Amino acid sequence: MKNTKTKLKQRLNSYGKAAAALIVLGGVGVADVDAQIDHKDYDPDISLSKGGGSNVTVKTDMPLGATANISVGKLHLYYDGSYSVGIVVLEKSLQFLKNGNYAKALSVDATINDAQSFKAACAFIFGKNGSGDLQGQGVKYVGFRFKNDGTNWNYGWLKIEVVDGSKGVTVYESAYESTHSTSIKAGEVPVLSTPGLWKTDAATTVWNTATNWDDGVVPLAGVDVVIPTGTTNQPSIGDLTTAVCKSITIETGSTLTIGAGKLTVAGNWSNSGTFTAGTGTVEFGGSAEQTIGGSTTFKNLIINNTHATEKVDASGATSCNVTGSLNVTDGVFKSK
């Protein structure tokens, strides 16, 4: 392997700034934005197999993560004529979980942290001439760590498949934990949040409590709201509270309550659950056609749609009733 490493170093040195540009601009993955886990799902998958002769083949289009700097965490996938496949390490801090001289094969959910044994090398081998525990085993994970800030370890994984006999390798995904010194599980990806989604395990019923919403933000006027089935603490817009949203969907089995508060809706209203009106007010204040669907009884209803010709249309609702005041300040209301 010493000769192979020397050839790889020479090959990489000859690329110079051009290689750096390829790595940065050759983003072939779809990145998920998350505060902790930086994940790339390579599309298309990155594959490399035996070429002609004994020359080293290097893939330069595999950035480790969506935000990793050019000086750290960048990977070159390589294959040489001796049936050796692996990673060329551009930054000395990048290390892989090892099993002897080879990368260790991990199954999904295996923990990657400082309790394992890592190996540092300028070229790290997934398999060679049939050796190593990755080849012929189907899709596996490889753990790694690197110092994203030059001081502290960040842990991550590659999802790969090595052809039996080390005749090729495919890399499917990669991810790393951007919080220093924090473990990650093989296959762990960001948990994406949804704006406007009331959490089924919300701690309280208070609409204006940010932590009750999936993305940790109380909805603004441009956000569609969904009150999902299976909610434990049903949302309530309390007295003196003014809430806003774009469209709102109350799913089967869920409930939205308005005490003496007010909800302004800029989009559509869809109620398959329960709406408890209290003494509150719902205002339809959009600038395009709005619809009311499902079965709803409002206490006080305000129609304040600024579009010149479109209307607030409840004609398709199962039922739509108002027990208090109906005030059309702007626009047209088409009732059931």
Global mean pLDDT: 78
Global morphology: elongated
Strand content: 35-45%
Ends apart, CA distance between termini: 79 Å
Question: How many independent structural domains?
Answer: 2
State the major sheet: 8 strands, antiparallel
Compressed to H and E, one letter per element, the order equals HEEEEEEEEEEEEEEEEEEEEEEEEEEEEE
Query: Low-confidence parts, pLDDT < 50 over ≥5 residues?
Result: 1-35, 52-75
Give the fraction of residues assigned to helices.
under 10%
Q: How many E strands? A: 29
Radius of gyration: 28 Å
Short synopsis of the structure:
This protein has 336 residues and is mostly beta strands.
Write up what this structure looks like.
It is built from 1 helix and 29 strands. The protein is elongated. The N and C termini lie far apart (79 Å). It folds into 2 domains: 2-185, no CATH class; 210-334, no CATH class. The chain is mainly beta and 336 residues long. The strands form 6 sheets. Strands 1, 2, 6, 7, 9, 11, 12 and 13 form an 8-stranded antiparallel sheet that branches. β6 (95-99) and β7 form a beta hairpin.
